[in-house]
User: What shape does this take?
Amino acid sequence: MSSRPKYAVKPDANQSDIIEELESLGFYVLNVSSLASCGFDLLVMGYNRHTYRPEWLAVEVKSEGGKLTERERKVQVSLMGMFGDEAPIVTAHETEDILDWYEAQK
Assistant: This one.
């Protein structure tokens, strides 16, 4: 029995632009989109704008109009159950969505 996804993993059209923009701003970005079981596409390390401590953020990248898969939704619900409204996960349509998350952290 194989644990491979039943479909080809295809990154969203905006994913490479988001990665490039984050890296140019000094963020560390791990592309984990090929690991379907993660339920998100990127792990981003950036500095909290208030404490200056580094923080990881799980990012699910979606093109405009894109919807979460059942697996992605379950991962987000699980993380929110563990961490509440400040769960370290965001669905991003553009780089600004990720920057907003870091800005909102206290």
